[in-house]
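Good morning C.,

I know you're traveling, so I'll keep this short. The sequence:
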Amino acid sequence: MPAKPKWAKLAAHVRARIESGEWAPGEKLPSTAQLKQEHGGSQTVVRQAILVLQTQGFVEGVHGIGVLVAEQPDP
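The tokens, ready to paste straight into the viewer:
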């Protein structure tokens, strides 16, 4: 079985922190530089992970502010 790509690991890590409530809706995610440093990936890895999370509805980019945790619909 092939190893999981770095962006997928990062996306899973961020998703888990959101789902656990560690990062609340409206809270700003760490910067790209911080995520790169924490997870040892490149800027491309971080951007891909954030893009996937945006597509899944976990985060939203706000121009001039950054990437925020999206409001999660009630199950």
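Safe travels,
E.
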